[in-house]
Design a protein that fits this description.
Blueprint: H1 2-7, E1 9-14, H2 19-28, E2 32-38, E3 48-51, H3 60-68, E4 72-75, H4 82-87, H5 89-109, E5 114-119, H6 142-154, E6 161-165, E7 168-169, H7 176-186, E8 191-194, E9 198-199, E10 202-203, H8 204-216, E11 221-224, E12 231-232, H9 233-244, E13 251-254, E14 267-268, H10 273-279, H11 286-297
Length: 305
């Protein structure tokens, strides 16, 4: 058994407690020797992990990577709040761009592919159909600008991978939108949800499986990795209410105008055909994704309470 373990590739996940990070752990745990970093929340696992704040301990991550010498590095760390980035340019640029540049440099030195997660916010949302990898980027927000700049740095190295995704969800304590909707509806509280911004909401487990396939098949480059269904947050909330048996009348449609500091693309829907055909895997539509959540809820407690 020890010899088999020694043959496993080493995977470093920067941000192992995140929604995407934890689903990657679950997907990769039988095939990779996993090491994690975390900021505030240790991961409840048997994997080795290092407490690390990328902003305060910027230089330490290079030492962690050099000492571990992983076969693959996955960075899941980013500011989740688009409006924060709009008013805190220096912080957003440091985390998304400068630190990405550091990571690319050290990973290149040890010939380790770096995986980076980007966003639909690199587009302006004026297209009438889903965006493909060939479409020109034109971010409306500073968040989108920093993610686009990071993409360019990552893709300067041929072996690296960028996955653009949007509205990531699952049955998980860090699934922000779905937990907010379900918690309020369960309590009988009214919520408002936007009707004028559409995205292809993405099941986190689909992202981790797609990444596993890409690495297993030795692919690299830029890919859209998003769900099949293009829908607004209002429509998403209605779907959640339908499937979980809550009152849809509690969900009040609204528009985003004048309620957000940073502009978002009206159409943030991504076409994942390139990825699906390459790895022979179909990402979930919204009905399949919510069904997966319900199945998980039967074995995992009410994580959003």
């Amino acid at each position: 058994m020890g010899q088999i373990d020694l043959m496993k590739k080493k995977l470093l996940i920067i941000g192992g407690a995140s929604l995407i990070g934890s689903t990657i752990i679950n997907e990769f745990k039988n095939d990779y020797d996993i090491h994690l970093t975390y900021n505030k929340t240790p991961v409840n696992s048997n994997f080795s992990q290092t407490k690390l704040n990328l902003l305060d301990e910027r230089n330490q991550i290079s030492s962690v990577i050099s000492n571990l010498n992983p076969d693959v590095v996955v960075n899941t760390v980013a500011y989740p709040n688009v409006d924060f980035c709009e008013t805190h340019h220096d912080e957003a640029n440091l985390l998304h761009v400068s630190i990405t540049d550091d990571l690319v440099s050290v990973c290149s030195d040890i010939s380790s592919p770096l995986v980076y997660f980007s966003t639909d916010a690199v587009f302006d949302g004026t297209k009438s159909i889903k965006y493909t990898e060939d479409d020109i980027t034109s971010p409306l927000s500073y968040y989108g600008k920093t993610k686009r700049d990071a993409e360019k740095i990552i893709l300067n190295i041929n072996e690296n991978i960028v996955l653009r995704t949007t509205v990531v969800y699952d049955w998980h304590i860090r699934s922000r939108f779905t937990n907010w909707v379900l918690k309020n509806l369960k309590q009988g509280s009214k919520i408002t949800a936007f009707t004028d911004q559409s995205n292809t909401a993405t099941l986190a487990g689909d992202i981790s499986h797609s990444l596993f396939c890409l690495l297993d098949q030795h692919h690299s480059g830029l890919f859209h990795c998003a769900g099949k269904t293009c829908l607004s947050r209002y429509d998403f909330a209605i779907k959640l209410a339908d499937y979980f048996g809550y009152d849809k009348k509690l969900i009040i449609p609204t528009i985003s105008k004048n309620t957000q500091s940073a502009s978002r693309p009206e159409n943030g829907c991504l076409d994942s055909s390139k990825l699906e055909e390459l790895i022979n895997f179909k990402l979930s539509n919204i009905d399949q994704g919510i069904t997966s959540m319900i199945n998980s809820s039967k074995t995992i407690p009410d994580i959003f309470l």
